[in-house]
């Protein structure tokens, strides 16, 4: 979370600097409008992206255990190993979220009250005005707009004392839906209040709205100097609510200077192109980098066993094939799971298993395919070889929202890696969780690590138990008699 906050704030700051130094002085107002809105969203979402960087494939790890394993419903296995998870106190995680929720709720309530203050029903007289509606307000109310409503003082309207330039200015706000930008910005500020730079975005967006509305006025018969004098006359007028667009928005040198800025289409094109090229590069820098082995999603949960030897062209004789199935059946018993399905559990010692694998290795492709269709999977693991991760990979694994760590077959918190160096790791295997495997997990990858000490301690046993047998056939429970009659 801390990493995300830092990246989000840095990204919003960089894009705001790009706007200030590259775009703000250019008269490409519509492009700037959508750049500012998009920059806020981009800075919030870009740090959440994950880029998978392939690393050199490590020798695959397999769990030391019985020579023969039975995996229930292996076709839908979620690549997670059901091991005991170290319990941890939830209080430190609970407190920050509570503080975030309280502050966000307070800001959302304030925003709601401001909207109600503008749109709450009153005895107000409304008059159609082109694509908007004029709302006549009592007292000396400043002119402002909210969506397609333009609020003006009734007395000034009756006396026809409101210049047409002011109405044209507010009509531009209404037509271009500037209120939608303001509400969207306020919503982001309420939900992502931890980023103070969003307040500067709000100010830049409001000023750009005024540029657009000023441009709409100057597109008519009104002269620049005449309009500038009118703006200066309204400088000391009363301010209105932050959610409304007002003609009396503070007059600055920037707003007056923008009216006389010349348009250079070539320079504008270059700056737009630079922005378009900048965003993908910035997204790559901010995204989380994960180092994975090649094709981790293809790792089968049969203890990372490799494929059997190349099938023989001729295959084995019928007698050997019958012997293979007979021995397999002799060492198989059938169990029933909670759903009433029956499945095989095969157990045999290492010597017999090696004999079975020898026959399987000499089978033809058709014979091996028939064995697999029968729910029998035989494979032989590679010889274990030490391969330490790079320092960058090792540091990356400490991110708990990306990696779940199993160290020497035990699920441990990511902080456990602080006790080790990358050279202390002898093997690593990465599984990408998909589908049901992601359910209830706070991470996207399951990482299995073996230390040098564990590697040395289990090496002889792993060399002896390299052949792996998995039975994956399940039988549906028999239908009830009532179903059979139907």
Automatic annotation (TrEMBL):
Keyword terms, alphabetized: Membrane, Transmembrane, Transmembrane helix
InterPro entries from the entry? Beta-lactam_resp_regulator, Peptidase_M56
Query: Which chain regions cross the lipid bilayer?
Result: 6-22, 34-53, 97-119, 131-151, 182-201, 269-287
Q: Name one Pfam family in it.
A: Peptidase_M56
Q: Does the keyword Nucleotide-binding apply?
A: no
Start and end residues of each Peptidase M56 domain? 151-258
- Kindly provide the name given to this protein in its UniProt entry: Beta-lactamase regulating signal transducer with metallopeptidase domain
Native species of this protein? Dyadobacter jiangsuensis
């Amino acid at each position: 979370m801390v990493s995300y906050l830092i990246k989000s704030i840095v990204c919003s700051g960089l894009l705001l600097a790009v706007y200030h130094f590259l775009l703000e002085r250019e008269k490409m107002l519509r492009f700037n409008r959508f750049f500012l809105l998009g920059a806020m969203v981009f800075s919030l979402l870009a740090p959440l992206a994950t880029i998978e960087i392939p690393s050199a494939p490590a020798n695959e790890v397999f769990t030391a255990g019985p020579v023969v394993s039975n995996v229930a419903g292996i076709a839908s296995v979620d690549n997670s190993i059901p091991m005991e998870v170290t319990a941890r106190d939830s209080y430190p995680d609970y407190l920050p979220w509570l503080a975030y929720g309280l502050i966000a709720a307070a800001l959302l309530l304030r925003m709601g009250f401001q909207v109600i203050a503008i749109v709450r029903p009153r005895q107000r007289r409304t008059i159609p005005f082109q694509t908007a509606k004029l709302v006549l307000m009592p007292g000396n109310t400043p002119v402002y707009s909210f969506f397609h409503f333009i609020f003006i003082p009734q007395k000034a309207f009756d006396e026809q004392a409101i210049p047409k330039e002011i109405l044209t200015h507010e009509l531009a706000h209404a037509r271009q839906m500037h209120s939608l930008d303001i509400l969207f910005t306020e919503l982001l500020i309420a939900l992502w209040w931890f980023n103070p730079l969003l307040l500067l975005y709000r100010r830049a967006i409001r000023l750009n709205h005024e540029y657009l509305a000023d441009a709409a006025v100057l597109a008519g018969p009104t002269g620049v100097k005449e309009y500038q004098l009118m703006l200066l006359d309204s400088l000391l007028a009363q301010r209105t609510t932050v959610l409304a667009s007002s003609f009396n928005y503070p007059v600055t040198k920037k707003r007056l200077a923008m009216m006389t800025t010349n348009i250079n289409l070539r320079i504008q094109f270059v700056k737009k192109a630079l922005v378009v090229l900048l965003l993908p590069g910035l997204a790559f820098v901010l995204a989380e980098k994960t180092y994975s082995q090649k094709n981790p999603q293809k790792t089968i949960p049969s203890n990372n066993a490799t494929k059997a030897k190349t099938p023989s062209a001729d295959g084995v004789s019928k007698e050997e094939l019958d012997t293979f199935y007979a021995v397999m059946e002799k060492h198989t018993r059938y169990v029933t799971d909670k759903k009433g399905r029956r499945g095989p559990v095969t157990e045999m010692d290492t010597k017999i298993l090696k004999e079975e694998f020898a026959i399987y290795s000499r089978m033809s492709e058709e014979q091996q395919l028939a064995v697999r269709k029968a729910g029998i999977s035989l494979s032989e693991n590679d010889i274990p070889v030490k391969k330490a991760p790079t320092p960058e990979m090792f540091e990356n694994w400490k991110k708990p929202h990306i990696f779940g760590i199993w160290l020497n077959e035990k699920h441990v918190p990511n902080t456990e890696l602080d006790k080790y160096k990358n050279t202390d790791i002898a093997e690593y295997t990465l599984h990408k969780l998909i589908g049901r495997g992601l359910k209830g997990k706070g991470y996207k990858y399951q990482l299995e690590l073996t230390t040098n000490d564990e590697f040395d301690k289990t090496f002889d046993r792993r060399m002896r138990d390299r052949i792996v047998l998995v039975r994956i056939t399940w039988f549906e429970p028999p239908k009830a008699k009532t179903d059979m009659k139907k």
